[in-house]
Amino acid sequence: MLSLVLFGCEKLYAPLEPVVEEDKKAIARVNEVYLYEDDIEGLTGSGSTDSAQIIQKYVDSWIRKQLTISRASQEIDFDEANIERKVLDYRYALMVHEFEKYYVNQRLEKNISEDEIKTYYDDKFENFILRQNIIRCLYAVVPAEAPQMDNFRKLIRSYPNSDLEEIQSYCYRFASQSSLETELWLNFDEVIASTPFANVQDKVTFLKNNSYIESSDESNYYFIRLLDYKISNQISPLEYIHDNIESILINKKKVELRRQLEEDLLKNAKENNEFEIY
User: Fold this and answer.
1) 8 A C-beta contact, residue 171 and residue 220
2) How far is it, in rounded angstroms, from Cα 160 to Cα 166?
3) Do 225 and 258 belong together in one domain?
4) Is residue 117 within 8 Å of 245, Cβ to Cβ?
5) For the whole model, what pTM was predicted?
6) Measured distance CA(228)–CA(204) in Å, rounded
7) Range of the domain at 213
8) Secondary structure of 245-258 in the HEC alphabet?
């Protein structure tokens, strides 16, 4: 991948000099600069169904870049040494990036314990301010023609004094949508988005004043049994941001591995007298 990217840069920013190679088949030309078949070898994988599309896109890009460079060369006196230095810096940056990615992938331990997640949350909880209202609930959308609606209404309304398995069984058979994970935190706006409750203006007051919500339209009945809620600008519960914290901790491990790589390289180079500063 690295070689392909570097190759692409070289071809896109080829010098505007007459270049004619008689033994090669040209596939595009801008002024006196040619793009040859050999130049696009390896651009597509063997058997690629969209290889013609990929090549055409590359050729179009090459032509546009060459036309831009041609015009720029006419109007600007470029510092060629400075450009070459930037190209070299970019090349080195790509090489370093690819090596760091390889090094990290070989050594990264992605398993994050629950204790690590809890500790990070306890230390940084003030950083996890909710930007939306969230709820724990039982939620169901049931077609109007579904049977035993009154019995289901009693079950979901009286939870947790009713049998959750009965509620789940009914929803499995008849509900068109449902969310029955009692410990799962959900974005309140997303839950009510396609329901008659979406028109509620004062959502905070609505949540504070209701533990059971029901509505209907011509097609469905909508049931929400609120179990708990958190208002925006409050501290997010750990369960709601658990996966985010796990990602944060994995990224911190990546950063530490990159830092350790640099330190190890510098230490080993010093010990082996591999560099000097004059």
Assistant:
1) no
2) 12
3) no
4) yes
5) 0.69
6) 13
7) 130-230
8) HHHHHHHHHHHHHH
Assess whether the previous peptide bond of 160 is cis (omega < 30° from 0).
yes
Q: How many CA atoms lie within 13 A of 158 on its CB side?
A: 11
Query: How many domains does the chain fold into?
Result: 3
Beta-bridge partners for 221 = 142, 216
Q: Give the CA dihedral 147, 149, 152, 156, nearest 10 degrees.
A: 140
Residue 123 and residue 109: Cα distance in Å, rounded? 22
Beta bridge partners of 150: none
Whole-angstrom distance, CA of residue 220 vs CA of residue 24:
69
In a domain, 98, yes or no: no
- pLDDT tens digit at each of 278 positions of the chain: 333 333 444 444 444 444 555 678 889 999 989 999 888 887 776 555 678 888 899 999 999 999 999 999 899 988 889 999 999 999 999 999 999 999 999 999 999 999 999 999 999 999 999 999 999 999 999 999 999 999 999 999 999 999 999 999 999 999 999 999 999 999 999 999 999 999 899 999 999 999 999 999 999 999 999 999 999 999 999 999 999 999 999 999 999 999 999 999 999 999 999 888 88
Return the residue matching tokens 């591995």.
Answer: 257
In a domain, 36, yes or no: yes
Helix (H) or strand (E) holding 40: none
The amino acid occupying position 38 is D
Does a structural domain hold residue 235?
no
Question: Is the same domain home to 63 and 191?
Answer: no
CB 142 within 8 A of CB 220: yes
Rounded to an integer, what distance in angstroms lies between the CA atom of residue 125 and that of residue 118?
10
